Q: What sequence folds into this?
């Protein structure tokens, strides 16, 4: 059974690799035959060379990579944090919701990227302006997803919580938050890629370091192989940020996935038993011994 | 996709007049605080323009100088043409591709990688390749608008209930009929969701393309005004874009209600009543 699935998995991967190789070969061949303008769209081999140069020979890209990662993640933390706080406030209090959401909507329909020059004028040419733009563009996905998630909880379940005498705070912590978390994380996933877009666009506008700067420099020097290598690094960065949230999602919202759910409940059970042994079990054994002793005495 | 394009739920109940008055009061207080803070020297008017000077800027840019109009027209033109071309291509390609199970499976890894890449990031490459003019902007908007409808349409096609398809088959529907009656309506909400995402990013794409390199358009106008620290005029441009974005948002919402009427119970009822009436009229005409 297991071998079977392994074989089909290998087969699947093999097929994918085959298709990939075929596309690459076709591209390379077309480039060599002169069907594609290789200045504008370099051949795969040249892009691979560009990657080699950037990552192994030159090695400056690691610094740019780290800078953009820092900007995007910082923007996500700030914008997402504000979005989360305002959404939680709005979910708990109808007045806050009423007076916050119009401004949030206005901010949403404004293309945040239009603010790039203004943000740069406000925060300067350094990292701060990139982080700020990232925060502005990633605020809304977190805000709206959290707010929707927290407010769409089933009315009957709330009723049940109330009838069991749960306080408002308990209802929030034990019902609304767990119900909302999957959608909140979906918002985080959108937001972190958006924060990356914000950071990169700000780098295009003005900047001294970062993958956006690197890419623009290469593109305008018509070194397309290097530019596309930088673009691929940006995809890599996007995937990295995305999976960072995905891992968090997996850790925190464990009940959504069966395997994780089983693992976590097993661990909790083990911990519970370990904790229970010294305190609860020992008196019972003692009591049990006494009882046995009593029984023995009575019998004799 | 998630609910990121939707508006947050309204606070419960109807909005009474009192609430509107409160809203206006809060807004007026904020603006007054801003104005006073700026005049008192707490906020640097060089960076945070006063509401009054923004208002004056509106008058200047739209009426006395009127120099915003050509830029606005250009950007709107880029957005509309790029959006139409890109999203139609995306939907069309996904519909063709989505018919085949195998192609869909092989495309999936690429779609994931493309989704993670900031689409606008390709901007400098396109501008280097196609020049500083209008065509490169349209191309960038096209690219930005291509992927969301493409991916969403593909997803919508993927999520069709297999039972529905086998029922169509058992009733001897042709492949085209299955497509038209089951797959397309099923994918429609997703397609429109994709269109909405594309439209939301189209404006941003055009602006970024103009920031990178251009000689006309709202993006250019904003960076020029910011460059000379004429913040009031830059804010006028941004607020114009806010209004534009809001119009686009409402337009997409209306389209959504019009096309996928069956997701909204009230609209569903209206449409089915109208259709029933029309059907009765037609069959009444023919005995």
A:
């Amino acid at each position: 059974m297991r071998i079977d699935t392994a074989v089909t998995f290998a087969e699947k991967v093999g097929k994918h690799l085959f298709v990939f190789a075929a596309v690459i070969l076709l591209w390379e061949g077309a480039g060599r035959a002169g069907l594609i303008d290789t200045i504008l769209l370099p051949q795969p081999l040249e892009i691979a060379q560009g990657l080699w140069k950037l990552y192994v020979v030159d090695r400056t890209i690691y610094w740019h990579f780290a800078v953009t990662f820092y900007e995007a993640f910082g923007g996500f933390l700030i914008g997402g944090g504000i979005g989360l706080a305002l959404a939680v406030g709005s979910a708990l209090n109808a007045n806050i919701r009423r007076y916050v959401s119009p401004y949030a909507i206005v901010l949403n329909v404004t293309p945040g990227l239009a603010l790039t020059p203004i943000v740069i004028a406000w925060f300067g040419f350094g990292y701060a302006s990139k982080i700020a733009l990232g925060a502005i563009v990633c605020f809304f996905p977190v805000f709206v997803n959290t707010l929707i998630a927290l407010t769409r909880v089933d009315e009957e379940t709330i009723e049940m919580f109330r009838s069991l005498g749960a306080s408002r705070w308990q209802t929030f912590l034990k019902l609304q938050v767990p119900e909302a978390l999957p959608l909140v994380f979906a918002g985080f996933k959108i937001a972190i890629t958006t924060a990356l877009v914000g950071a990169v666009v700000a780098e295009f506008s003005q900047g001294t370091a970062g993958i956006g700067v690197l890419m623009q420099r290469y593109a305008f020097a018509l070194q397309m192989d290097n530019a596309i290598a930088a673009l691929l690094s940006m995809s890599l960065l996007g995937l990295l940020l995305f999976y960072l949230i995905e891992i968090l999602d997996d850790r925190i919202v464990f009940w959504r996935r069966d395997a994780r759910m089983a693992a976590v409940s097993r661990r909790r059970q083990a911990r519970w038993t370990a904790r229970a042994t010294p305190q609860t079990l020992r008196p019972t054994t003692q009591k049990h011994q006494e009882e046995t002793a009593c029984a023995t005495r009575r019998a004799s | 996709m998630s609910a990121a394009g939707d508006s947050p739920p309204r606070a419960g109940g109807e909005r009474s007049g009192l609430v509107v008055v409160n809203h206006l009061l809060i807004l007026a207080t904020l603006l007054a605080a801003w104005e006073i803070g700026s005049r008192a020297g707490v906020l640097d008017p060089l960076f945070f323009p006063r509401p009054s000077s923004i208002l004056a800027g509106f008058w200047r840019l739209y009426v006395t100088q009127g120099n915003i109009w050509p830029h606005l027209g250009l950007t709107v033109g880029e957005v509309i043409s790029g959006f139409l071309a890109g999203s139609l291509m995306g939907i069309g390609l996904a519909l063709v591709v989505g018919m085949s199970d195998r192609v869909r499976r092989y495309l999936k890894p690429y779609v994931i990688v493309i989704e993670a890449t900031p689409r606008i990031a390709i901007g400098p490459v396109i501008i280097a390749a196609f020049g500083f003019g209008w065509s490169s902007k349209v191309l960038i908007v096209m690219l930005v608008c291509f992927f969301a409808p493409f991916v969403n349409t593909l997803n919508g096609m993927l999520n069709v209930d297999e039972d529905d398809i086998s029922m169509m088959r058992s009733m001897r529907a042709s492949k085209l009929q299955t497509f038209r009656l089951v797959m397309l309506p099923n994918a429609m909400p997703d397609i429109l969701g994709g269109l909405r995402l594309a439209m939301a990013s189209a404006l941003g794409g055009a602006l970024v393309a103009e920031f990178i390199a251009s000689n006309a358009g709202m993006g250019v106008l904003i960076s020029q005004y910011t460059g000379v620290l004429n913040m009031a005029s830059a804010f006028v441009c941004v607020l114009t874009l806010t209004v534009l974005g809001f119009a686009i948002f409402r337009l997409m919402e209306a389209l959504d209600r019009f096309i996928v009427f069956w997701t909204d119970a009230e609209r569903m009822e209206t449409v089915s009543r109208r259709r029933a009436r029309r059907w009765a009229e037609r069959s009444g005409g023919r005995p």
